[in-house]
Amino acid sequence: MYNYIKGTIDYIGPEYIVVENGEIGYQIMTPNPFVFSSKVNEKVQIFVYHHVREDSAAFYGFETREQKALFTKLLNVTGIGPKGALAILASGQVEQVVQAIENEDESFLVKFPGVGKKTARQIVLDLKGKLENIIPDAFPNLFNDGHAKAVRAAGYSEALEEATLALKALGYSEKEVQRVAKKLLDEEMTTEQYIKKALQMMLR
């Protein structure tokens, strides 16, 4: 799986850019190719998603990891394909889109090309509460909710805090995560060890 490509921007078109790396030109679809206008012939790092189907394969590229992460989440929504997800990212900032989903602001979501009321509702149903892993590093104040308050109040270590976020991303409820995390407070582990131990406790 490709994570990113580093290379020189050789061409900018209406829908894609071409990044040259090792004498190979990679055609990469991006939300807004023209944001790279000032970087032609400059070396850049593009975070890529390789979308493969039976009849086609394409690279989709993004300036940040957060954009790529939201793109992949949107692909999991019924009725949204790569072009639809790309259109949403072209028209809105990651923070704005995530905030709208968390607030169930369907009136904001229907402003994006190809997103009607039914699709907006489906986005909320499929993604609300599942985007925290996108936000913490880039937008630490966006999720100032019960989970963040619980983490601060309990005095979790950084590794344990990361583990709780990972567990929520796996679908466990706030109540389940906090119950197990409190039992691990006195343990000194890595994030991966916390996650493994917590999963063992939840499956008992």
From TrEMBL:
Top-rank taxon, per record: Bacteria
One GO MF term attached to the UniProt entry: four-way junction helicase activity
Regions that span the bilayer: none
Region (Domain III): 151-204
Keywords, comma-separated and alphabetical: ATP-binding, Cytoplasm, DNA damage, DNA recombination, DNA repair, DNA-binding, Helicase, Hydrolase, Nucleotide-binding
GO terms under biological process: DNA recombination; DNA repair
Localization per record: Cytoplasm
Pfam families in alphabetical order: HHH_5, RuvA_C, RuvA_N
SMART domains hit by this protein: HhH1
Gene Ontology CC terms, in alphabetical order: cytoplasm; Holliday junction helicase complex; Holliday junction resolvase complex
Domain (Helix-hairpin-helix DNA-binding motif class) ranges: 72-91, 107-126
Family: Belongs to the RuvA family.
Domain notes: Has three domains with a flexible linker between the domains II and III and assumes an 'L' shape. Domain III is highly mobile and contacts RuvB.
Oligomer and partners: Homotetramer. Forms an RuvA(8)-RuvB(12)-Holliday junction (HJ) complex. HJ DNA is sandwiched between 2 RuvA tetramers; dsDNA enters through RuvA and exits via RuvB. An RuvB hexamer assembles on each DNA strand where it exits the tetramer. Each RuvB hexamer is contacted by two RuvA subunits (via domain III) on 2 adjacent RuvB subunits; this complex drives branch migration. In the full resolvosome a probable DNA-RuvA(4)-RuvB(12)-RuvC(2) complex forms which resolves the HJ.
Job of this protein: The RuvA-RuvB-RuvC complex processes Holliday junction (HJ) DNA during genetic recombination and DNA repair, while the RuvA-RuvB complex plays an important role in the rescue of blocked DNA replication forks via replication fork reversal (RFR). RuvA specifically binds to HJ cruciform DNA, conferring on it an open structure. The RuvB hexamer acts as an ATP-dependent pump, pulling dsDNA into and through the RuvAB complex. HJ branch migration allows RuvC to scan DNA until it finds its consensus sequence, where it cleaves and resolves the cruciform DNA.
UniProt-recorded name of the protein: Holliday junction branch migration complex subunit RuvA
Species, as recorded: Peribacillus loiseleuriae
Gene: ruvA
